[in-house]
Amino acid sequence: MKSLWSDGDAQAAVARYGTQGINADWALRTYTTRLLGGVPELVLHGGGNTSVKTELDDLSGAPVEVLCVKGSGWDMGSIEPAGLPAVRLAPLRALRGIAAMTDEEMVNLQRTSLIDAASPNPSVETLLHAFLPFKFVDHTHADAVVALTDQPDGEARARDLFGERMTVLPYVMPGFYLARDGMRAYEDKPDAEGMILVKHGIFTWGETAREAYERMIEMVSLAEAELARAGSRAFVAGGLPAAIAPPAEVAPILRGLVSEDRGDDAEPKRMLLDFRTAPEIRDFVNGDDLASYARRGTVTPDHVIRTKPKPLILPVPEAGRLDDFADRARTALIDYMADYHAYFTRNNARHDGAKTELDLMPRIVLVPGLGLFGLGQSKAGAGGTAVLAEANIRVIAQAEGLGRFEPIPEEDQFDIEYWSLEQAKLGKAAEKPLARQVCLVTGGGSGIGAATARALAAEGGEVVVLDRDGDAAATAAKEVKGLGMACDVTDGAAVEAAVAKVCETYGGLDVLVSNAGAAWQGRVGEVDEALLRQSFELNFWAHQRIAQAAVRVMTRQGTGGCLLFNTSKQALNPGRNFGPYGLPKAATLFLMKQYALDHGRDGIRANAVNADRIRSGLLTDGFIAERARARGVSERDYMAGNLLAREVTADDVAAAFVHLAKARKTTAAVLTVDGGNIEASVR
Ligand code: ZN
């Protein structure tokens, strides 16, 4: 592992933060925390923390000795000084030598000692940082250190490798106990440059930011060299069928299985999936004793809160035999859930039944022949879990190359998984109505489509934007932190590919807003057939093709779904010379009813929005000006030429789509958004 220290960057950080009133110690602490946090082999998802002891002035101008220590919720790779909140040192140090303390007492003390009451919670390792007498203290869960010590003889291996340079501490519960036992270990060997936490991670320290950081890099490099000598384990593949089903077909089956039904009144509790594959991942999941090495626990304790102690291992999905795969996958999941429940019951007994069981669903799913899925309540959460799964694979392969992978025992994993301080990291914010749902919007690059994408995302949906214009799709998707793709929806193959990509990226699809359309004109008795067919391609066939592709995914998931079509007032009330536009739109309105009728039993709803006179791609500014002139009214009066005399906007239409997406008991409905047009009113 290479040191990334740069004198120039360090000085620049001191100068930059100095202008914000941050002192040099705090600035340098921020700088090297970022250096550590930017390297996935050192730090992943909150798995590490750093501190510096320095002096700040209080309001009266009197100097106060503080510990600036990593706060929860901040990513070390992009941390700012605010993510290293200042805690008064004296009250923390006063606890040195005490024998016991509850978690609640510890958290309370840490919070009441903060200089700024608005700060995030200081790290669970704050006490150890405070007790150690060094100015800079760095802690990571370096892959190489955990691979070296996740062994039956991990402690002895660490002592052999690091000798007098490092203290070696057998595993102890993080928080107060680690602070207490860590201090005793430090006092036994006060000249050490840091401490190896067996089966957990590593601390290094120093009088300068650079010294603590360089020691981290050096010690991790020693462990890496030791592992390199042994090499990673080559897993032996069991027999695989010749053809494996693609992830886009496997994902919806899996996503459906891990969804929890919540009855008629609520959406199922779905998960988002993040698929990963690579030669190393496939070697790992194809190994013939996968069920042994993959199910011994997580490589470092705090992964367990995001990954659970064990992954779910599925059967091989053979191409063309997905029904059989689905049956066997269901059995594997039922076994997994029973196993998790037994694990909970067994370990909760040690806590006198004081713990509340978490959900039974896996967070990592390994699929031989294919790769792995990370599961989460959001796309970002699923991605975070998948990153941890990849790290586990890396470390287990190294640990098995060196000896035998053996992490902390089940009881200790449980105590972390059900530790209130770890659960607090996950956040319990109420979910938005469309959370956990994957929403696809066609023609989403501008106008009504882009407004709908924004409105779905605002309600918690994970949004995919398709548009003929790839740049517009990308821009609109960026705004909603979703996926944007160029797609001509009149091209059947392109539609299939786009829906497959959605399944591969999110695990499936729940809401389709089939919005793309364009207006063609011509007197129906004279219009060229080619023009009429062109309009049917986009204004009818494109709706049918993507709806069919969506329904295929929805039925595979088995958790219902929602199809929404943008029809138009033309579907109900023909406009003169607008036959080429109105005819296919009328067919699409009927299409919506047919989907509602044929797929209601699958829990799939189909509804339409009938909008009129929206300033958008269809109704260009030039067209509006021409129409207004022809009628002898102002543009404003033309746009507001409805019963309410109010202009209708793309956002109004988007709100209608969102309402229908949430209306669990509405299907075959047309929701009109036109300010009032009695000729186009329904029923
Ligand atoms: Zn740790």
Please characterize this protein's 3D structure.
It is a single chain. The chain is an alpha/beta fold and 683 residues long. It has four domains: 224 residues, L-fuculose-1-phosphate Aldolase; 177 residues, L-fuculose-1-phosphate Aldolase (3-Layer(aba) Sandwich); 199 residues, NAD(P)-binding Rossmann-like Domain (Rossmann fold), CATH 3.40.50.720; 32 residues, no CATH class. 45% of the residues lie in helices and 14% in strands. The chain has a seven-stranded mixed β-sheet, with helices on both faces. The protein has a seven-stranded parallel β-sheet with strand order 14-13-12-15-16-17-18, sandwiched between helices. The chain has a four-stranded mixed β-sheet with strand order 8-11-10-9. Helix 21 links the parallel strand 15 and strand 16. Helix 1 packs across helix 2 and helix 21 runs parallel beside helix 22. It starts with 6 loop residues before the first helix and ends in a 10-residue tail after the last strand. The mean pLDDT is 94. Bound molecules: zinc ion. Zinc ion (ZN) binds next to loops.
* Rg over alpha carbons: 30 Å
Just name the CATH architecture of the largest domain.
3-Layer(aba) Sandwich
Mean pLDDT: 94
Helix content bin: 40-55%
Unreliable stretches? none
Largest sheet: 7 strands, mixed
What does the overall shape look like?
globular
CATH overall fold name of the largest domain = L-fuculose-1-phosphate Aldolase
Bound molecules: zinc ion
Task: Please count the beta strands (DSSP E, at least 2 residues each).
Answer: 18
> How many structural domains?
4
Strand order of the largest sheet: 3-2-1-4-7-6-5
From the N-terminal CA to the C-terminal CA, the straight-line distance is: 71 Å
Approximate strand percentage: 5-15%
CATH superfamily of the largest domain: Class II aldolase/adducin N-terminal domain
CATH class of the largest domain: Alpha Beta
